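Researcher: Good morning. I'm working through a list of sequences from a screen, and I'd like to move beyond sequence-only analysis. For each chain I'm collecting a predicted structure so we can compare shapes side by side. This is the next one on the list. No need for commentary yet; just the structure.
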Amino acid sequence: MLNLPFKALADPTRRKIILLLKEHDMTAGEIADQFNMTKPSISHHLSTLKQAQLVTDERKGQNIYYSLNTTVFQEVVNWFFNAGHVNEGGNNDEER
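Model: Good morning. Structure tokens for this chain:
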């Protein structure tokens, strides 16, 4: 499960989508307007982000709005920094 978010974030387009959604919720069309690619390609990226649970969607009338799932995103960031801290080298007992 934890590898899905990292695979999703490996793509620069998906990272840019995350940054856009960090600012505010957007429709797929609004997201697509920020890129020079087809709407089906954006849809694929959004689907990958949803499967990784980094993004959620909610229908409001005729539109579907995408939001950053801050809970999962924060878990990934915390795991990343905690794993990096543990692997910085040395024995933690020696540092105390």
